[in-house]
Structures are given as structure tokens and as C-alpha cells.
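Annex B, item 7. Sequence and C-alpha cells for protein A, then protein B.
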Amino acid sequence: QVQLVESGGGSVQAGGSLRLSCAASGFTVSRVCMGWFRQVPGKEREKVAIIGTDGSTTYAESVKGRFTISKDNFKSTLVLQMNSLKPEDTAMYYCGSSPNRYCIFGYWGQGTQVTVSS
């Protein structure tokens, strides 16, 4: 059974940092595409960062140079390091995975809230 559990969210002032983690179970993380998404009320969920099975990464333009996605295959953990946070980064952040190496996401965690104050 696929399970994704996020942690690390919280409240921080603008310019601060947070590190989100996603503990994965029920599958082999090295064999699937994984990523971080975020959503604010009234808006669609948007991609933040994705990491492929070959380690390649893609980022939303709004977070390039500030956020870093990484994956620990041995610990089955996905991480999002967020630096230089801005109030517009405030959202519920979700960990997602695909059932294979193609980045079509079908599994989601419960989310972790990130709030950035000015």
C-alpha cells in the first residue's frame, strides 16, 4: 500500500527557511517520479518541484534558485529545502508520486501547511 507522509511545515518570517520531508512506503522510490506541489484555497494545485528516476529536476519559475528538491533512495524520503521564503509561498504543500518513472502523479500525502509572514 502506497503511503506518503509529509512533515516539516510551519510558520516562518519572510526570508527564512523550512525543510519539508516526505516519508514514502509501499514502493521503491528510486523507480518512480516524485515531486512537491502546493495549493492555496480557491486555486488549483500547482507543481513546485519534480525529481525523476534519473535524478533530473524541474522547478516552477517562482521557486527557482530558492528551493531544492532531493531524494534519499535508501531512506525512502523526499525532501524540499526552501530558502528565502516569501509570503506568496504560503500554501498547503503536498508530496506526490507516480506509479512508475513517468511523471503522472497518482498518489498524494495529506499535506503540510507552510505559512510565511511579511
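Protein B:
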Amino acid sequence: QVQLVESGGGLVHSGGSLTLSCAASGFTLDNFAIAWYRRAPGKERELVASISSIGEITKYADSVRGRFTISRDSAKFTMSLQMKNLNIEDTGVYLCNAARVDVGSFWGQGTQVTVSS
């Protein structure tokens, strides 16, 4: 079965850190564009960070650049999002995504991140 499963979410105080992981099963992340999105309360889904399938080019939303780091470990079939200096605006459901033109797009179920003041 092809699926992505996120883990690592939770409750953290403002200024704290969390690392999210996304494990792929049924396929390898090689040659996939991968990304983390988040859906904050009352807001539309937002692209947080991504790595391209070719060239491993990373991109970040302006709001997280310098604080978040996306990475891929193909050998372990995982992708991660390291989050530092979290603030209340980072609260939301974080979803991982893997996409390839010839295969399609896969989504995880999401993991909740809550940042308290």
C-alpha cells in the first residue's frame, strides 16, 4: 500500500523546536518532489518548504525561512522538517507531500503542531 505517515507533532512553547518526520511506504522518495504544507485555523493550506525532484533545490515560505529546514533521506524512505524558534503563527496541521509527474501526488494524513505563548 502506498502511503505517507507523518509523526513528531505536538505542543511546544513559543521559541521552542520540533522535528516532523514523514515515512513513505510502498514506494521510495527518490525522484519525487517532496514538500511540507500546513493548514492553520481559518486559513488556506500553505506551502512551507519543498525540495525539487531534480537538483534537490530547496524553497521556503518567507515566514519560515531561516527557521525551518526540509530534508530527505531516501535510504530510510523518510523526509523531515526541522522547525526552530517556533511562534504562535506556526500552529496548524502539517502535511507531507510527494509528487512525481508520471506517478501522481501522495499526501500524509497530517500531524498537529500547536505553539503556545
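Comment on protein B: The chain has a mean pLDDT of 95.
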